[in-house]
Amino acid sequence: MLARVPAPRIVALQGSVPLVTMEPFAEFLVAMGYPARQLEHPRDGTFSHDSFGSSEALAGTLAWHYEREGIVPLLIGHSQGGMLAIRTLHELAGAFNAHLAVWNPLRDAPEPRTTIVDPRSGRERPVLGLQVPWASAIATGKLPRLLLGQWSMLERLTQIPDTVGEFTGFAMEWDPIAGNFGSIEPYVATGSAAVRNVVLPSDYRHVLLPLAAGLAREPATRSWIDTYVPGAGGSPPAGVDTTNLIHAADIWHSLKKHWCREAQRLLAATAPS
User: Fold this and answer.
1) 108, 102, 116: which is closest to 41 by C-alpha?
2) Phi/psi of residue 144, each to 5°?
3) Is residue 142 within 8 Å of residue 187, measured between CB atoms?
4) Pairing of the two strands 115-117 and 124-126
């Protein structure tokens, strides 16, 4: 049923050392039924985006897509990619710049304007203040921000502003790469954003978290993912590899929810009055 309605574009942001990029996670989403075209970078068709890019450019890119497609893209970031996703939310909230240029991803360059025509209202509006429907960060910690000199994000990393409707943070209690040594600093909303924190199993591995494509090919795990509901309990299927099952299922649940919700909003906005 969802395949018949418009799907939000997804920007999947890879880690700082992409030994494993977000490509396999995007392949998982496609295997589950998400439209591949809505995961592709418009310039080169790749599924995985560099996390050392500019949050200013990414914020402007989200506005560029919204103006053309009627749905603000969703953000999924692994490790450093999660930092860039969160930084972009703060960028849209005005934490770093008073104005944001629309960014053309086909030319990888800014356009000479800081406003778009809102496709829902038909009115001109600034890029600043645009709200992302849903975003997620997977295994994003403060220790790498120290090592990479990303000082401006140390206090902001777990603070989620109102420029996202819903946010899901995934973390492991023991994750030396993220800087977790037996405890996790939870994400918290600075305002009205709905924020959830999900603790992943201790046997998951930071670098390998995007490896989820096989979960969609195995009938037992695919069925479990399709019926997964956050907080409902239920043991993972036995006798098959369930590595990375929890965040894969949780993200798929969120994507289905926002796919339906944003399609309804778009159709309502374009329906004849």
Assistant:
1) 108
2) -60, -30
3) no
4) antiparallel
7: helix, strand or coil: coil
Q: What are the residues facing 115 on neighbouring strands?
A: 126
CB neighbours of residue 191 within 10 Å: 10
To the nearest whole percent, how much of the chain has pLDDT over 90?
84
Burial (0-12, 13-18, 19+ Cβ within 10 Å), 271? exposed
Chain-centre distance for alpha carbon 140:
12
Res. 233 pLDDT band, cuts 50 70 90: confident
Least confident range of 49-53, 196-200, 208-212, 249-253: 49-53
DSSP letter for each residue of 158-215: TEE-TTEEEEEEEE-SEETTTTEES-----EESSS-EEEEEEPPTT--GGGTT--HHH
How far apart are the C-alpha atoms of 122 and 118, rounded to whole Å?
A: 5
